[in-house]
Design brief:
By secondary structure, the chain is α/β, with parallel strands linked by helices. Helices cover 25% and strands 20% of the residues. The chain has 15 helices and 24 strands. 52% of the residues are buried.
Length: 553
């Protein structure tokens, strides 16, 4: 229990004396600690402090005290949205992805998700001393991101206050995750019981529609409900989600999926528990519910089973951003316009294969997409990754996937960057639309350098260094401005004018694939001698110069 929720009843006890305490005692609620789900507790998790929450759970509560505050100042839709910072800190609600920061909190912070909420005039306030009726009075909803066992647990008084708040008309948006990672399901158990929600220690595994071929837990999910939370939502991505049972299911995995069992001792060095992600005969078949919602009294509850789905590097994928805004709006009971990618933003188009910008496979573009998001944060512009179309965005990044029926409209966007691959079906239609001719490809590698120097981003890691990079570009001829060429005279980066549009072509897709840029959280500076260059550093500099042009530089 938090200090505030404990001190308030004690102050009352001191004031009313022994006689009053005898009257009050029958009206107290006292909850004992739940037994640990894993025995013995995993050694690493204990060493890292993830078992600390066991000491704080349970304890006394005086329901009349919490109800009294909420009776005097009930929840209201125009009240503030309260964000928990007591029981969670891994993904700050105001943390954004940064150009030269590679930590988890930067890449998965929630600032981009909250941008439409703030733009709608919603007051957002943080709660760092725990939940009480007094703190909840007059608020609209509570946003409770994935809790963690290295923080204090939920005390009885907090559970009583939160349940009363929702029952009287407040909202709750609750983020859970796979298995019992960071002990979150145990931390939340007293609260989820109060709302009839069950969080089994499992992972949603689905081989049918993946975000990366390397995992059955990074998946695309299709909306299967006309609930207001799903308004305008067709598909969204999840990065290892858990099951949410007990409310109305709004989205679930495919019939090929299964509930992958938690194995707390599988990785002794981590409290981010998983299972083995292999189908076992005794593991229950899917579909697995991953988004759920329901009413409780006069209030509303939305639960999402994945903490990363609304983080900075996935919020722009398909309809993830709209799902977040819908969930918060419905919980609050007030309309909030959905996010849009405006005239300064960039849309990445993926073609039929929608995993291209989320896949960690070497041949895909997950790390490039993270760099796009860095530019979106740097410029204050929006960013999206979709197969649907560019919408109103000012820039389009066209990745090398299959042909598009709307190619002419795509190439008419104000700024376009096309990454071409000789094996991709979109290559020849793009060249034909631009009046270019593809020649016989020469497989020889050669050093490529800038002919027309592009401005370097004002980022310390990218300001200096040798920009030469080994390339194997396609052979293309025609009217174009060559920006980068190799020592064999082949264009590597070129610009073509099409009406009022400047279309920039990268003629060697391998230069920006995951294999060249590294993993999404790899710092390309690590492991280098002072002043030394590397292919990864050169690839990052190339990516940022091209993205600078895409964002209007």
């Amino acid at each position: 229990m938090t200090r505030r929720t404990l001190l308030a009843p004690l102050a009352v006890f001191a004031a009313i004396g022994a006689g009053g305490l005898a009257w009050l005692w029958p009206h107290l609620v006292w909850t004992a600690h739940d037994a640990p789900w894993a025995r013995p507790l995993p050694e690493h998790a204990v060493d890292e402090g993830y078992a600390d929450f066991y000491r704080w759970r349970g304890g006394p509560a005086w329901p009349a005290w919490e109800e009294g505050w909420l009776a005097r100042s009930p929840p209201r839709p125009d009240g503030p949205l309260l964000v928990d910072t007591t029981h969670t800190s891994k993904q700050p609600w105001d943390e954004d992805i940064a150009m030269d920061a590679f930590g988890y909190s930067h890449q998965h912070g929630y600032a981009r998700a909250f941008a439409p909420i703030l733009a709608a005039g919603v007051e957002v306030d943080t709660v760092s001393w725990g939940w009480s009726g007094r703190r909840l009075a007059g608020a609209s909803a509570v946003f409770l991101n994935l809790v963690s066992g290295d923080h204090v647990g939920l005390g009885t008084a907090e559970v009583v206050a939160l349940e009363a708040f929702v029952r009287r008309g407040g909202g709750l948006v609750l983020i859970t995750d796979h298995s019992n990672c960071y002990f979150h399901a145990e931390v939340l158990a007293p609260l989820t019981r109060a709302f009839g929600i069950t969080l089994p220690p499992v992972t949603a595994a689905d081989p049918a529609d993946r975000l990366t071929p390397r995992s059955v837990s990074w998946i695309r999910v299709h909306a299967r409900s006309d609930h207001p939370v799903m308004a305008g939502v067709e598909t969204f991505g999840l990065m290892t989600a858990g099951a949410v049972q007990g409310l109305e299911t709004l989205a679930e995995t495919s019939a090929e999926s299964w509930f992958d069992r938690w194995e707390p001792y599988l990785k002794e060095e981590s409290a981010g528990f998983t299972g083995d992600l292999e189908r076992e005969p005794d593991e229950a078949p899917g579909p697995v519910p991953v988004v759920a919602a329901g009413t409780h009294g006069l209030g509303r509850v939305v639960v999402l089973g994945d903490q990363n789905a609304w983080g900075a590097t996935l919020i722009g994928y398909e309809d993830n951003g709209r799902l977040f805004t819908n969930a918060v709006a419905w919980a609050m009971g007030r309309p909030i316009p959905p996010p849009v990618v405006g005239p300064n933003g960039v849309t990445t188009l993926t073609g039929a294969v929608r995993s291209t910008c989320t896949s960690v496979a070497d041949e895909d573009f997950r790390t490039l997409q993270v760099q796009v998001q860095r530019w979106a944060a740097r410029t204050g512009a929006g960013e999206a990754c979709t197969a649907k179309g560019p919408g109103q965005s000012g820039g389009v990044l066209l990745l090398p996937q299959g042909p598009r029926a709307d190619l002419d409209a795509v190439l008419d966007a104000p700024r376009v960057l096309v990454v071409l691959d000789p094996e991709a079906g979109i290559t020849d239609p793009v060249l034909a639309a631009l009046g270019l001719v593809r020649g016989g490809d020469d497989p020889r590698p050669a050093e490529a350098r800038w002919v027309v120097e592009r401005p370097a981003p004002d980022v310390p890691m990218l300001r200096a260094g040798d920009d030469a990079i080994e390339a194997r570009p396609m052979t293309v001829t025609g009217a174009m401005d060559v920006w980068m060429a190799d020592s064999l005279g082949r264009p590597v980066v070129a610009a073509v004018t099409r009406g009022d549009t400047r279309v920039v072509l990268l003629l060697d897709a391998d230069l920006l694939r995951n294999a060249a840029l590294g993993k999404e959280r790899d710092d390309p500076r690590k492991g280098l001698e002072p002043g030394a260059s590397s292919r990864a550093m050169a690839a990052h500099r190339l990516a940022h110069r091209l993205l600078g042009a895409l964002y209007g530089g």
